[in-house]
Prior knowledge:
- The chain is an all-alpha fold.
- The protein contains 21 helices and no strands.
- The protein has helices at residues 10-21, 24-36, 40-68, 72-80, 87-119, 130-140, 142-161, 163-191, 197-206, 215-227, 234-239, 248-277, 286-296, 302-334, 339-359, 363-369, 383-409, 413-421, 432-454, 460-469, 477-481.
- α1 (10-21) crosses α8 and α4 (72-80) runs antiparallel to α5.
- The protein is globular and about 65 Å long.
- It binds tryptophan.
- Tryptophan binds next to α1, α2, α10 and α14.
- The site of tryptophan has 16 residues, from α1, α2, α10 and α14.
Amino acid sequence: MQEREQWGSRLAFVLAAAGSAIGLGNIWKFPYITHENGGGSFVLLYLFCIAIVGLPVIIAEMMVGRATKKSPVAAIEELSGKNSPWKIMGLMGVAASFIILSFYAVVAGWVMHYTYLAFSDSFSGMKANQFSEVFNQIFVNPWLNFGWATIFMAITLFIVIGGVKDGIEKAVKILMPVLIVIMILLVINSIFLPNNGFEKALKFIFLPTGGLHGAAILEALGHAFFTLSLGMGAMLTYGSYLDDKTNLFKAGLIVVALDTIIALLACIIIFSIMFAYGGKVSNGAGLVFISLPQEFAKMNGGYFVSIAFFLLLFFAALTSAISLLEVPVAYLIDKGWARKKASFTMGISIWLLSIPCALSNSEFWKNKFASVTMFDFKEKTVFFNKMDYLASNWLLPLGGLLIAVYVGWFISDKLRSEQFKIGSNSERPFHYIPWVFFTAVVSPIIVSMIILIEAEVIDKKAINQFFDGLVGSKTTIKQIHK
Ligand code: TRP
């Protein structure tokens, strides 16, 4: 057995965990779901989910990892015995990492393509209708999709092969500070945009206007898990490389705060630009890939802003993908495999699974495999969307529920309280009891309710009526423009 790897410092752990959390979820997905759900009220709901479910669960995950110094499956074997049914939770995590990374790599591939377009100054000469063409092109062109996803997976694999200290830690120590600096520069740039874009963006993001739809609550909670990398053992695995000196509450709080700040700043950056130039905001994935480049073309210095933006997105995606690959790799390492062999095996398997995701929007795929309906949850959605849906709406909340119940009810209070007080100067930190309460009681209740709504055991209409009862109408970008 090789000796267990460890982070070089507490800072390295925090940067790696924040790197995992801060990703496409923050900069690509959060802004468009915020827009789709009307702004302020949704942001508030999301912050609520982060605070009362996200924070307790992230600490719970890190704790199981640190206490055992093992990846999910092995950690549960150590705490609950070889035959514990809780091992399923660990295996679900390995499966989830496959599913998430296989579509993550495809979107990250688009980001790389756009970074290339930005560098080659392709946006400035384009006419308004060409932007959606460019996006459609990558959306339906199997080779472009597949090629970039492959390059992205190769870079991720290269870093994970390097190991904890010489791979992941080195990468995040460079990428995360750069990411934060780019972010700050882009925010400063937003302040000086024309037509009070910045002010309008702040209003849109921070003024709750009511009118939430019931589905928003599912989306907010699912996204809280996704953005904090919870529910599949990524934080558990990173926690397993942590020393016995770091305070978990503090570390968890810093990671959650960084992740939330970056998500809000991303909204500020994107909506300031949209309001400043009055462009039409396309729904869904197109916000960052169609609407935004259109505005870059109109902006003074848009060339540099576009490069900065897509590089930022690329770095964010990379540090997240690393953590997604590390989970199944650590699983094999704990089974006695060498890191190199484990990394290649998992990296290549996930790459294979990403092929259908990469090709799923192309004509080729639709003609050939139209009848292959892998997961027929919602009609009409393509393979790619199904992966995202399956992960964010089912696997992660379910994984999060299980880990909260496990830490809340099935490990000893002695172990828990000892882990919690490490690095704190009090024997019984005042926030220990609230943390246990939120982990053992509040989170499981909220997450189970959401899962029951999702499974349509609880009627969605009732939830909609409840939200409709909260007065106010949905504000859209158009209304703010007036
Ligand atoms: N949190 C990342 C994002 O916001 C994605 C991610 C990385 C992730 N590791 C994960 C999501 C583990 C779920 C589980 O983009």
